[in-house]
Amino acid sequence: MYVKSLTLKGFKSFASATHMRLEPGITCIVGPNGSGKSNVVDALAWVMGEQGAKSLRGGKMEDVIFAGTTGRAALGRAEVTMTIDNSDGALPIDYTEVTISRTMFRNGGSEYAINGTSCRLLDIQELLSDSGIGREMHVIVGQGQLDAVLRATPEERRGFIEEAAGVLKHRKRKEKAIRKLEGMEANLSRVADLTTEIR
Ligand code: ATP
């Protein structure tokens, strides 16, 4: 499995549609300071479901939309499409090529799609987390982040390993189920109180 291509349109400094074809192995992005190298990495994180504006080096989520320059007006939406070569079947989906896309509108709306079919953010997160790539983004090590990994607590380190092993999805589902059960128990106890009152 490898990232085969990436297309950015209206994402950060990439106002016009920009298509990048990647090969297996190591890819280097070179360019002068401020030319948008890190924006490409942000686009990868974003299309894979990143929800934290800070992780994308912005103040709010809309900051990923091209904000305009002296010669070019701001745009109303940002779009990123990533195509993954899945010929080794690493992603649990019956396609040798998987395209994931994310669009965000300035009014706050978002759209997600897998192979051109609209889906939920959760579908993308679950698809990727089964292969060890995920929302927690330990697959993207940013500048200065190595230090944070080295200084991580044993619990945080376990989180990295769990995500790589694909167990994080199940842990999150378990936590959600526990929260639902707790809510249910609170409701039941309220019903019991009311029953006692009525009697
Ligand atoms: P360095 O080598 O210094 O780390 P870089 O090549 O990684 O730089 P980036 O940080 O990717 O550069 O890009 C920064 C540029 O992106 C800045 O010029 C900034 O103004 C521009 N930029 C970021 N967000 C937006 C946006 N929403 N609209 C327009 N331009 C943006």
What attributes characterize this protein structure?
199 residues; globular; 5 helices; six-stranded antiparallel β-sheet; alpha+beta; binds adenosine-5'-triphosphate; 2 domains
Would you kindly provide a written description of the structure presented here, covering whatever features stand out?
The chain has helices at 37-47, 121-129, 145-150, 154-165, 168-198; strands at 2-9, 18-21, 77-85, 97-105, 110-114, 117-119. It has a 6-stranded antiparallel sheet. Strand 5 and strand 6 (117-119) form a beta hairpin. 22% of the residues are buried. It has 2 domains: 2-136, Rossmann fold, CATH 3.40.50; 168-199. The longest helix has 31 residues, at 168-198. The chain contains 5 helices and 6 strands, in the order E-E-H-E-E-E-E-H-H-H-H. 35% of the residues lie in helices and 19% in strands. By secondary structure, it is of the alpha+beta class. Adenosine-5'-triphosphate binds at residues 12-13, 31, 33-39, 63, 65-67. It is found in: Cytoplasm.
Quick description:
The chain is an alpha+beta fold and 199 residues long. Helices cover 35% and strands 19% of the residues.
What is the name of the CATH superfamily of the largest domain? P-loop containing nucleotide triphosphate hydrolases
State the end-to-end CA separation: 64 Å
Order of helices and strands: EEHEEEEHHHH
Q: What is the CATH-assigned architecture of the largest domain?
A: 3-Layer(aba) Sandwich
The computed structural class is alpha+beta
CATH class of the largest domain: Alpha Beta
Number of helices: 5
How many domains in all?
2
Main beta-sheet annotation: 6 strands, antiparallel
